[in-house]
Amino acid sequence: MFLRKLASALAVGGFLGLAACQTSIAGDKAADAQQAIDQAEKALAGAVSAGSVWQLIDPATGSSSVSLDKLLGAAKKKSEAGDYDEAIRIADRVSDAAMLGVEQAESQKGKVAPFYN
């Protein structure tokens, strides 16, 4: 009798521990998504101030190119919907493109703009 109660208690305790672990993982993913979005917002602000905001094509926004701020909005919506992996993926793309835009703007400072006939 004692062994049955002990086994039952261990099973319930293990289940509760697993549930707590899943909640912790989801909380970590949410925090990671928010951190990626915050980083993307900072990078995008840098690209805006440098005057070099790129446009990207991404499956999250359809088949046409959209500006980075719209793509960042899609990342926020994915995060709010609980799709943290997709939100992180999109936010990382926004960060990378924004930083590359700033790098491009800095590399072209002081150069004469091309003239097309």
SSE inventory with pairings:
Blueprint: H1 2-50, E1 55-56, E2 66-67, H2 68-80, H3 84-107
Antiparallel strand pairs: 1-2
Key terms for this structure?
2 strands; mainly alpha
Q: Can you describe this structure?
A:
The chain has 3 helices and 2 strands. With 117 residues, the protein is mainly α. The chain has a domain of 78 residues. Helix 1 packs parallel to helix 3 and helix 2 runs antiparallel to helix 3. It starts with a helix and ends in a 10-residue tail after the last helix. About 12% of the residues have low confidence.
- Choose one word for the global shape: elongated
Helix content: over 70%
Overall SS class: mainly alpha
Quaternary organization: single chain
How do you describe this structure in short?
The chain is mostly helical and 117 residues long. The chain has three helices and two strands.
